[in-house]
Amino acid sequence: MKVAAAGEKDLDCDHQRHAGLYGAQRVKAMSAVLLGLLLSVLDYAIANVALPSIAHDLNAPSSRAIWVVNAYQLANLSCLLPLASFGSRVGFARMSQIGIFLFLITSVGCALSQNLLELTLARALQGVGGACIMSVNIALVRFIYPHAELGKGIALNGLFVGIGVALGPTIGSIVLSVATWPWIFWINLPLALAALAMAHFALPQTPRSETQADIPGSILTVASFALLGIGLDGLMHGDFLPGSLLTGAGLICWWLLLRYQKGRREPIVPVDLLARRPFLLACLVGFLGFVASNLYIVAMPFTLASAFHRGDSTIGLLIAPWAVGVAVMSFVVGKVADRFPASVLSSLGLLLTAFGFLLLWLLPLDASNAAIAWRTLLAGCGFGLFQPPNNRAIMVSAPAGREGGASGMLSVARLGGQTTGALLVAALFTIFPHPAFICLGGAMIAALTGSALSLGRKYLAD
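Structure for Multidrug MFS transporter, as requested:
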């Protein structure tokens, strides 16, 4: 089976099930999806920019302050697949509303935190709320857009991811220039309230699975991701004994989970989907792309502060071109994502991203802001070209009735890559006194590897 694009037939498409919405209904429903998405992405991007300030104010080393990002991502990643499965049973719209409400409550907890532990725990709960939103995000798009226009819907999704990431550093810089870091969480409240209202009134009701919720499988899935993630982080920080024990426990949980999932009709870990080679390859390409992006995004604020000697307000503005490039290119690629294969578009995108990272890596330490900005913009344009076609390839590789599993796995590939990238940054900051350009080099290698795998998928998928 081949991934459908450029005239290939979608063997698993149910045109009646995926007929989509039209006119005002589509506009309202997609607006609700995008507002929830913007809430999740905006907060993540703002938190990245504030890491140096949080580390300073809470008297925490940089390698530990990164857990403000890692806790959100790890909780998000651990809960994505169970929540995607649960969303298939309670309805994707209801799951999105639950996530927005939880995000609202935990934003208050983040803003009121008095130390790094409190903030990390609040961010972990916020990550669960984000997982509720992201686990069903693309599944909702699958029902809002007709099959022939799915690429447009996914590209629009990517456009708003880019807008959120672009606005995040800018808003973060503005907030940090006039107020303290807790205000980056207080500003979530009006957006969350608006998103909750729109989700209630505009999101479509989707078919629900009649399969019973798998509570043991859900617990094993969360434990597998969480123990492995925390254990690997311990190893990255040099805590070898606890890190090894937790990593080992995580691997045992994974073994038990995969044994338990065998033969289940709708497994929480979608082993049935991963057995489809086009689906697996698209997920691997997505994973590598996001490893590359987070090696850049998490390390770059520290790079700009320590190597290029930029202040908080300038750091946000110099990271923003990445997201501008993602947003602009996502809009452009939306016009062709349904006509050209991901093996071409996504490969070119990651190649362009790697080239942008190479140009940043070659910069002298006295480089101007303009020199940093246009290279960052170029890398972001490449990432915007890569993402929508690859996401489309993931969704069209899944059969009717497995939209929740595919949507969850798409988010797992994204967050798994982001978490891996962040863990690598933490390790490099622990091992090397000045790891800034090593992180950029690693990002370039990950992007090139993803580009090569994407280019070969039309041969490997047969």
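The longest helix spans residues 23-57.
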